[in-house]
Amino acid sequence: MQVIVLGSAAGGGVPQWNCRCPVCQLAWKGDPRVTPRTQSSIAVSEDGASWVLLNASPDLRAQIAATRALQPRVDGRDSPIRAVVLTNGDVDHIAGLLTLREQQAFEVYGTADTLALIEQNQVFDVVSKALVRREPVSFEVPFSPVPGLTMEFFTVPGKVPLWREDASLVIGEESGSTVGVTITAADSRLVYVPGCAAVTDALRRRISGADLLFFDGTLYRDDEMIAAGIGTKTGARMGHLSMSGADGTVALLADLPVARRVFIHINNTNPALIDGSEEHRAVEAAGWTVARDGMEFSL
């Protein structure tokens, strides 16, 4: 299995267009310690010819331009992108579908709830229904978007997309609004969890033994957006675990056998984005990698 990190940042990217938090200030100045990042997505392939996108970020056009494996290979219209698999209805995971509107055949997979959100918004009709099939997928039912890759959805504690929040909001429920994906090819297994509000025993079982894990790395500290003076929400309120602390991801997953651990969907305020920072060193010392755009893995 081949894996490419198309985007490694949370919504807004790094630097975020309207932000001068400490991390973004360094990025705007061109400080080499902070690598610019686009919004999170990965591409996977079994044969290097047919590719599946895990989420379609608003930065997809730039991501394709930066990734030779995803570019047209023959004259006329062509794309090696065969499918897009959606883990939820967040804007930073579905808006990129609008980039793929130029009459190209591929398939979109998601839960019935996620696909319903797209169906209800007519702007997504620019992605031709005649060419682009929308395939609802049930939890814990294997599906193969391309030959050689088998995927399976599983529920993850989370919440509805920000734009669907109302007075009935519950954070941390396993309603299917937030989804993880297991991807297998031959004897290799990848687990992709770009959003997560809590670690449950069921989630630990899903992760255990993975050859490669991509996991929600939105914040380093739960209150970092408040401390930076650019937000009023904690990570927990946004439905995201933090990397650090006794109840953070590093500690909660420390005992699990995982060959390689990678944080993805990293917010622009996260100091672990600064190479050489105390936070970056702590994450690496714990056996984690902070994802960068363009990283490639072979399983």
UniProtKB/TrEMBL annotation:
<dbReference type="InterPro" id="IPR036866">
    <property type="entry name" value="RibonucZ/Hydroxyglut_hydro"/>
</dbReference>
<comment type="similarity">
    <text>Belongs to the PqqB family.</text>
</comment>
<dbReference type="InterPro" id="IPR011842">
    <property type="entry name" value="PQQ_synth_PqqB"/>
</dbReference>
<comment type="function">
    <text>May be involved in the transport of PQQ or its precursor to the periplasm.</text>
</comment>
<comment type="pathway">
    <text>Cofactor biosynthesis; pyrroloquinoline quinone biosynthesis.</text>
</comment>
<dbReference type="Pfam" id="PF12706">
    <property type="entry name" value="Lactamase_B_2"/>
</dbReference>
<keyword id="KW-0884">PQQ biosynthesis</keyword>
<dbReference type="GO" id="GO:0018189">
    <property type="term" value="P:pyrroloquinoline quinone biosynthetic process"/>
</dbReference>
<keyword id="KW-0813">Transport</keyword>
<feature type="domain" description="Metallo-beta-lactamase">
    <location>
        <begin position="51"/>
        <end position="266"/>
    </location>
</feature>
<protein>
    <recommendedName>
        <fullName>Coenzyme PQQ synthesis protein B</fullName>
    </recommendedName>
</protein>
<dbReference type="InterPro" id="IPR001279">
    <property type="entry name" value="Metallo-B-lactamas"/>
</dbReference>
